[in-house]
């Protein structure tokens, strides 16, 4: 019997098993294809399956974004001949097409959930997760759109999705929840880097950091590792952004500057620094965790999160993204 002729649940389980096999083999393009087929079966997906879908596509995306950044660097390299620059530009254009196609594919799956009859109220965390995915992949698509008008339209769609996820998260999730923290991390980077609204990006990150720190002592053990790791990433961004602003807080007042200054040295709890080595390893990578075992432990709750410790570092971990 062909896969297409099998009952929906049986078909879903077979695609899911293939996706897990592809993950073990580090074949993430295959994993993404199988997880798309899982989603298209129409059967409800679990949170772990949602995270597998996001993580698979994030691995593929990060590889292509890294390739694109390399080619842009080559195009701008001193001493490169016009012929070499043309070849690099055409090669980069091909990767841009692949990135646009990938984003369209993910957004098709995401939109099918967002327009389905699955009410956000029954599982607000899943609603936040999918609105964040929508925002993230519209942003990734905007990175490779050259027409200013088209890019502005896609950026606006990304911002609207981030705002929708933010409203839903604030209403239903605790500030220390890793799904909400991951959203605020990506949203703040979007405002700061894509929209060039640096003060707004700083303020979103600082507010999310402060709210989460206030609840750190009441955090559930199941959330602790993911939440403290994302807090570390938010803190790193705040430190970098303050440095880029000449060492001053974007808030501008003496009181706000005094509150922001200790961010670089702040210790949420002693255990927060215990994850520092793992975080630094993730920062050196382009964004995705490198082993299936780590991926599964992180993707249980966080969703793809990103950060920015320099211009080459795009996203960081995840489900991480």
Mean pLDDT: 80
Strand pairing plus helix content: what structural class?
mainly alpha
Q: How large is the share of residues in beta strands?
A: under 5%
Give me the strand/helix succession. HHHHHHHHHHHHEE
Helix content: 55-70%
End-to-end separation in angstroms reads 38 Å
Biggest beta-sheet profile: 2 strands, antiparallel
Count of DSSP H/I helices = 12
- Unreliable segments (pLDDT under 50, ≥5 consecutive)? 1-5, 253-302, 307-321
Strand order of the main beta sheet, please?
1-2
Radius of gyration of CA atoms, rounded to a whole number: 20 Å
**Tell me, what's the shape?**
globular
Based on DSSP secondary structure assignment, what is the total number of beta strands? 2
